[in-house]
């Protein structure tokens, strides 16, 4: 018995600690290898900077879209699998408005086609010259519409679907959210048709080439837009959380809902604001992603959901800043990983990072929650 | 399953009576299942008759229907072992199915020892039965790989890990670097985005192994002519035969999981589901139980995947998206997590009404209505608004029923979680013991139904003395 | 696995002789207990537990004698539950050691501890709610051969576990009779009243065939008549040779029933001794009685 237990304890130790050690080691080896590849020119520095830029863009999007997921996860205590389809909903609703404005309210194309974002190949974004520089008003209108629609949608779904089962377990809510995800996703496919469409005019995007050591890195306006919008919204949220009473209440609630109830913060009100802020950011994130990416389709949000979950878990559920940092880590992982793995496995490597993170430190980088 | 629970008088019966009652109960479940499936068949047959389906179409319809009932019931049973019994929130079912069928495919495909032509990939040329065992073992082993570290995570993290893992599997089979490679002289691979052609025929292979292929072919010719199934009736009989094979496997799954559920092993699984810490405090190595249960369930999911895809002629990565996992979940939730019979019923109902039903309706409409549906939602909506003409909209709906059917599934899922989270037969009421739990004969000397002497009410009195 | 311990039969080891004596001369029990050197199954040495810098237990040292009914008391936050959790393997102690029957068990998993005969109950009874009372009971016996997957499903092997199941079932019924909850056998544990759950939990713990029981506030939330019954059972079992360590809030209850009392305060051992000694200890009065109005 004694020997047996020593053995099993030793084995436990082997599982718990050396894994961590091995991961750190692997990370160090990868970084050294990266330096080697850069020094010996196997990966040109400029190409690496392109990867970094790409990862930054993705990461900002993951962070922005992840904030809402993280907030609902901690305050309502469930993993919302419909979050990805909130992203898609935001992107589509914003694009409807952008198309209508850019299409001159029916002057340049059939208003019905515009309202369906060119379903059935009736009208394309390039035709309408959509871009931040070429149609700034249409894009601005799209951003606002994306935020508003996603907020309304989330409030509607919360009222009809989640509120009646608020007191049930997180698992019940999670399964229910899968149902919501199905409804939203396939309703979008049904209404807007399941095609993948180009929504921006790539010729209308001003860009500039910057010399980086051994080559040029191109930066275009849509990348700058995504960067500016993300950073501004994140800063705004930071001020809201730190400076306002509402922000403090939300932080208290994500720390401990019971405590918040006892101390008399109106929880349903806080929940409402959680959806408003989370969904607003999510809608804008979805829309800006589509502007940056140039294509729009019905399951875009769903395939982005898992990396966003990865970001949120990495950053620690409930932590807004964690979501942002986690988003950047996942975004950079996905783009930089192609130095070592085939492009098709970039997303797989991001999931792997998430899984390893869960195993080593399930509470995330910023463990200890929302106040961070 | 409530029969055994409310029988304070049951202990007065002789042992034989108890056994008879238990058998009757089992039969009741079987009868329930049989009734449901026959009812579904009847419904479809009537539908087919109304459509003037010929014999061939009717047989195909039923074979097709039974195929989906069988596979979804099997997968729901496997998931029930994870979720219903053990409380393991696995939403990566499709990943384990993919491991199963891909392994089987690579093992069983005709070998290619010289560089094959572009687009074709060889395998290891093992006999199919061996390849199937290989696939099942691979799924179990992969399950173990996931379970070893992940089982200590809380349920929602476990869910995210499993769905992440299933996506990693899909990305891996999709990856062009693994499309074709040379292993020990064999040109094998996962086929990348274009997938793998399955150059084996499960029914033919089985018949050949039994030495029955030639008489079977002769039989199909004569029986086909007798039943006026048209020319080349063999595929029709093949699908019927495959249905029979599925039925055998389904019964196997059912009996197996029934046995797991009412054994001491299953008792520990249920205890883990209820409260892992309390179970540990009773000296159970819960980790071992969870790993065993998870791997066993994954093996069954792998087998389910093999049976699902082996007759499709080819597999492509796009078939292994997570939505199939959620289909299995909906089936399980309809039937009631924790109930073996419920899992099968859920699989049948899901397959018949949510999965195949809308497509059947679509066929009905399209066969009876001549005009074509419009292309976009807008074109369907405008006549509805301007002229109150719902016809284009209805046509558009039936034409796009593939999408709408998933909306319906989502709504069903939400409805069930709101109103009936325990499903049709949920409440996890199948007793976890190999034997009837009534008081054995010889210890009836103590007072029988003693009233609660402590004044604690037997039911719902949880708070009375708090 | 032989005698899965319907508690009515004596199966606790090492104490049989004494018990026989005790039963013979009821009045001399206390005397005998004091003079006969008895084994010390549980020994806690320098136990310390920190949670992220917060010290919950700061050096607990005590021993529990064979066949005794020992009480562990202290005001809220004294570290009683953490001590319990460290003994039973729920937490790994930061420092110090726990010995059970001469073997160090600190850091072992809860199931390893339980399998050594040291079994606990929980403060809030942890019934397996969607299982019946009988299923709860039948879960408990250790080392059931039917707990192997293959044995439970394969045709030949499965029949082999039937006999064992029958034996376990019989024992369970006997135990339910002993606790007078046999009328609830087919009831779902989730439907039991708070007090009935406590009875079931104790009965279930006994089905594991332990030699020592750790009871975490077994009387909390139990109505007075049931409390009395529960106490009777505990005394009866102790006389059969089981050893008990009871964490309890209710000071009077401990003083009346335990022969040895350990007092904890703010994560430290305050004192230990007979109820009389403890009650007259100034520190205890100040720390415990002063702090708690009970």
TrEMBL record, chain A:
GO terms for molecular function: L-isoleucine transmembrane transporter activity; L-leucine transmembrane transporter activity; L-phenylalanine transmembrane transporter activity; L-valine transmembrane transporter activity. Its main location: membrane. CDD domains: TM_PBP1_LivH_like. This is Branched-chain amino acid ABC transporter permease. One of its GO terms (biological process) is L-isoleucine import across plasma membrane. One of its GO terms (cellular component) is plasma membrane. Keywords: Amino-acid transport, Cell inner membrane, Cell membrane, Membrane, Transmembrane, Transmembrane helix, Transport. The chain crosses the membrane at residues 20-39, 60-80, 86-107, 139-157, 169-192, 224-241, 270-292, 304-332, 339-360. It is found in: Cell membrane. Belongs to the binding-protein-dependent transport system permease family. LivHM subfamily.
UniProtKB/TrEMBL annotation, chain B:
It is found in: Cell membrane. InterPro entries: ABC_transp_permease, LivM-like. Residues 428-466 are annotated as: Disordered. GO terms for cellular component: plasma membrane. The chain crosses the membrane at residues 33-53, 65-83, 89-108, 128-151, 157-174, 239-257, 291-315, 327-355. Coiled coil: none annotated. Pfam families: BPD_transp_2. Keywords: Cell membrane, Membrane, Transmembrane, Transmembrane helix. CDD domains: TM_PBP1_LivM_like. Its main location: membrane. GO terms for molecular function: branched-chain amino acid transmembrane transporter activity. It is a multi-pass membrane protein. Signal peptide: none annotated. It comes from the Archaea. This is Branched-chain amino acid ABC transporter permease. It comes from Haloglomus irregulare.
Automatic annotation (TrEMBL), chain C:
CDD domains: ABC_Mj1267_LivG_branched (cd03219). Residues 1-38 are annotated as: Disordered. One of its GO terms (cellular component) is plasma membrane. SMART domains: AAA. PROSITE patterns: ABC_TRANSPORTER_1, ABC_TRANSPORTER_2. GO terms for molecular function: ATP binding; ATP hydrolysis activity. Residues 42-291 form the ABC transporter domain. GO terms for biological process: amino acid transport. Keywords: Amino-acid transport, ATP-binding, Nucleotide-binding, Transport. The keyword Zinc-finger does not apply. It comes from the Archaea. Gene3D superfamilies: P-loop containing nucleotide triphosphate hydrolases (3.40.50.300). Residues 22-34 have a biased composition (Basic and acidic residues). Belongs to the ABC transporter superfamily. Probable component of a branched-chain amino-acid transport system. This is Probable branched-chain amino acid transport ATP-binding protein LivG.
């Amino acid at each position: 018995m004694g020997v047996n237990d020593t053995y099993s304890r030793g084995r436990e130790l082997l599982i718990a600690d050396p894994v961590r050690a091995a991961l750190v080691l692997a990370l160090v080896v990868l970084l050294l290898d990266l330096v080697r590849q850069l020094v010996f020119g196997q990966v040109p520095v400029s190409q690496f900077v392109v990867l970094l830029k790409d990862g930054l863009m993705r990461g900002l999007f993951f962070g922005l879209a992840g904030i809402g997921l993280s907030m609902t996860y901690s305050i309502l205590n469930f993993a919302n699998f419909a979050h990805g389809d909130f992203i898609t909903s935001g992107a589509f609703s914003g694009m409807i408005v952008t198309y209508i404005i850019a299409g001159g309210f029916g002057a340049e194309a059939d208003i019905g086609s515009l309202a369906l974002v060119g379903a059935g190949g009736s009208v394309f974004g390039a035709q309408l010259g959509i871009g931040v520089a070429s149609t700034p008003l249409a894009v601005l209108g799209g951003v606002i519409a994306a935020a508003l629609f996603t907020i309304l949608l989330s409030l509607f779904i919360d009222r009809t679907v989640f509120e009646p089962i608020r007191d049930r377990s997180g698992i019940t809510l999670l399964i229910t959210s899968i149902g919501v995800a199905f409804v939203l996703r396939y309703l979008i496919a049904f209404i807007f048709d399941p095609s993948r469409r180009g929504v921006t005019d790539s010729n209308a995007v001003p860009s500039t080439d910057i010399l980086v050591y051994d080559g040029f890195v191109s930066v275009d306006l849509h990348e700058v837009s995504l960067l500016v919008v993300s950073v501004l919204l994140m800063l705004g949220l930071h001020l809201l959380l730190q400076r306002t009473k509402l922000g403090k209440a939300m932080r208290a609630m994500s720390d401990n809902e019971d405590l918040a109830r006892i101390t008399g913060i109106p929880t349903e009100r806080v929940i409402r604001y959680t959806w408003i802020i989370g969904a607003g950011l999510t809608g804008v994130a979805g829309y800006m992603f589509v502007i940056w990416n140039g294509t729009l389709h019905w399951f875009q949000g769903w395939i982005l959901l898992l990396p966003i979950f990865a970001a949120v878990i990495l950053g620690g559920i409930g932590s807004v800043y964690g979501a942002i940092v986690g988003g950047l880590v996942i975004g950079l992982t996905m783009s930089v990983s192609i130095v070592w793995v085939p492009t098709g496995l970039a997303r797989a490597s991001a999931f792997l990072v998430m899984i390893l993170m869960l195993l080593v430190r399930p509470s995330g980088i910023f463990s200890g929650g929302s106040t961070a | 399953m409530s029969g055994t629970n409310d029988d304070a008088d049951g202990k007065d019966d002789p042992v034989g009576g108890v056994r008879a009652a238990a058998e009757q109960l089992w039969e009741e479940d079987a009868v329930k299942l049989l009734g449901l499936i026959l009812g579904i068949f009847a419904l479809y047959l009537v539908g087919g008759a109304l459509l003037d389906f010929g014999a061939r179409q009717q047989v195909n319809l039923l074979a097709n229907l039974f195929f989906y009932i069988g596979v979804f019931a099997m997968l729901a049973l496997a998931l029930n072992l994870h979720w219903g019994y053990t409380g393991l929130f696995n939403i990566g079912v499709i990943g384990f199915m993919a491991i199963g069928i891909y392994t089987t495919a690579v093992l069983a495909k005709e070998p290619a020892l010289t560089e094959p032509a572009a687009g074709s990939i060889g395998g290891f040329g093992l006999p199919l039965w061996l390849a199937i065992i290989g696939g099942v073992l691979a799924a179990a082993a992969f399950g173990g790989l996931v379970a070893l570290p992940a089982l200590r995570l809380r349920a929602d993290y476990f869910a995210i890990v499993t769905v992440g893992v299933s996506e990693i599997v899909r990305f891996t089979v999709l990856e062009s670097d693994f499309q074709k490679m040379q292993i020990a002289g064999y040109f094998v691979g996962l086929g990348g985005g274009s997938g793998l052609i399955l150059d084996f025929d499960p029914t033919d292979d089985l018949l050949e192994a039994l030495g029955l292929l030639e008489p079977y072919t002769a039989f199909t010719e004569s029986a086909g002519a007798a039943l006026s199934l048209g020319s080349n009736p063999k595929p029709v009989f093949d699908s019927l035969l495959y249905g029979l094979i599925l039925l055998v496997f389904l019964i196997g799954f059912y009996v197996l999981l029934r046995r797991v559920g009412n054994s001491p092993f299953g008792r520990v699984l249920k205890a883990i589901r209820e409260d892992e810490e309390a179970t540990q405090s009773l000296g159970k190595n819960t980790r071992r139980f969870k790993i065993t249960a998870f791997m066993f369930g994954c093996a069954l999911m792998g087998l389910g995947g093999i049976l699902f895809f082996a007759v499709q002629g080819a597999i492509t990565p796009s078939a292994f998206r997570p939505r199939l996992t959620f289909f299995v979940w909906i089936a399980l939730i309809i039937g009631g997590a924790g109930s073996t019979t419920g899992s099968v019923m859920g699989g049948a109902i899901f397959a018949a009404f949510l999965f195949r039903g809308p497509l059947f309706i679509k066929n009905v409409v399209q066969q009876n209505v001549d005009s074509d549906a419009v292309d976009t939602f807008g074109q369907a909506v405008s006549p509805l608004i301007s002229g109150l003409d719902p016809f284009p909209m209805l046509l558009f709906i039936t034409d796009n029923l593939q999408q709408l059917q998933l909306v319906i599934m989502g709504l069903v899922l939400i409805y069930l979680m709101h109103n009936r989270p325990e499903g049709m037969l949920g409440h996890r009421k199948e007793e976890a013991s190999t034997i009837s739990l009534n008081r054995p004969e010889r210890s009836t000397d103590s007072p029988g139904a003693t009233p609660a002497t402590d004044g604690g009410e037997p039911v719902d009195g949880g708070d009375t003395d708090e | 696995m032989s005698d899965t311990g319907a508690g009515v039969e004596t199966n606790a080891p090492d104490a049989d002789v004494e018990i026989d004596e005790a039963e013979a001369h009821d009045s001399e029990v206390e005397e005998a207990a004091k003079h006969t050197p008895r084994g010390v199954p549980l020994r806690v040495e320098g136990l310390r537990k920190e949670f992220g810098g917060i010290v919950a237990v700061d050096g607990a040292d005590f021993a529990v004698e064979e066949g005794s009914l020992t009480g562990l008391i202290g005001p809220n936050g004294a570290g009683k539950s953490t001590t319990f959790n460290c003994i039973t393997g729920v937490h790994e102690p930061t420092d110090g050691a726990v010995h059970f029957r001469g073997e160090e068990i600190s850091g072992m998993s809860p199931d390893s501890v339980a399998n050594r005969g040291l079994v606990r109950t929980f403060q809030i009874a942890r019934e397996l709610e969607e299982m019946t009372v009988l299923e709860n009971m039948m879960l408990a016996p250790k080392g059931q051969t039917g707990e192997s997957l293959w044995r439970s499903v394969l045709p030949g092997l499965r029949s082999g576990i039937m006999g064992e199941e029958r034996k376990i079932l019989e024992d369970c019924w006997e135990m339910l009779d002993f606790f007078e909850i046999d009328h609830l056998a087919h009831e779902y544990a989730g439907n039991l009243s708070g007090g009935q759950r406590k009875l079931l939990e104790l009965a279930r713990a006994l089905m594991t065939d332990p030699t020592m029981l750790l009871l975490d506030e077994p009387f909390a939330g139990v109505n007075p008549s049931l409390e009395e019954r529960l106490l009777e059972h505990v005394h009866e079992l102790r006389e059969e040779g089981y050893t008990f360590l009871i964490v309890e809030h209710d000071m009077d209850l401990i003083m009346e029933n335990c022969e040895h009392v350990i007092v904890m305060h703010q994560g430290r051992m305050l004192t230990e001794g007979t109820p009389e000694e403890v009650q007259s200890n100034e520190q205890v009065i100040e720390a415990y009685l002063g702090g708690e109005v009970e």
